[in-house]
Every structure is written in structure tokens, then in C-alpha cells.
């Protein structure tokens, strides 16, 4: 078992770094061990080493994907008891609205951003669209959208 874990250690480290979490490597290793124990060799198409290695490599990737933080498109419901008096009267904007205002103000204060860069950042970070979705809307490639996003983020970093 230890030999197999050592062979997949580079891939486990790679995905754990991408998760940016302290416990990512141990969580990935734990899921990898669970996969090895649950693996049914009879269900594989062939019994060759290459097939088993490919299966385990894909299981590590799937474990990484399952550990990615999910986008929460719907905010959890808030009970009336949890709201403060100011929020009940509508004097204080909910946190989400304040975040939208802060992000919009940030985009408006950076004079270097083009209209396309502002639109791409707004669609990605405020509305939760993916690069593929935006590429379909704008009739361009995903690569172009990612380039625009990276260029805009670089400008924002320089501006601050």
C-alpha cells in the first residue's frame, strides 16, 4: 500500500497545492486509500498495470474535483430572528449587496480597464458565469475570455 501511495505522491501533491488548503494532501491521500480498498479489479476491462494506473490516476483527479469548493448560487435562507433591527427596517444592505457595490466600485475606479474586461469580470465574479458560458454569449473562444480576465486582473493588481 505504501509503495502505491509513494508512486502517486507527485500527483497527490500537485492537486493538493491547487486546492490551497492545509489538509488537502491528507484528504486526497485518504480518498486515494479508500479508492484502492473499494477498487474491484474484476470490473476493469483489462487486468494490465496500465489500466490500473490509469484508473487510480483518474480517481485522484476525481477526488480533487470533489474537494473543490462549490459555487453557491443561492444564498441560504435567513430567519427573522437572525436579522438585526436595522436590517429589518431596510437601513443596512445585506452583505451580498455590499459586496456587489464594492466590486462595482473597484471596477469603476480602475481607469485602465476596457469595457470588455469590465464585462468579463462582472459576469465571472458577480453572476457566476464560467469562461465557456461567456465565450458562447460573446461569440469568441474560451481562451480569449481567459486572456481578457487575466489581463484585467493584472491591471487591477497594478492599480491597487
TrEMBL record:
Coiled coil: none annotated. GO terms for molecular function: DNA binding; sigma factor activity. CDD domains: Sigma70_r4. GO terms for biological process: DNA-templated transcription initiation. Pfam families: Sigma70_r4 (PF04545). Residues 112-157 form the RNA polymerase sigma-70 region domain. Signal peptide: none annotated. InterPro entries: RNA_pol_sigma-70_dom, RNA_pol_sigma70_r4, RNA_pol_sigma_r3/r4-like, WH-like_DNA-bd_sf. This is Sigma-70 family RNA polymerase sigma factor. It comes from Flavonifractor plautii (Fusobacterium plautii).
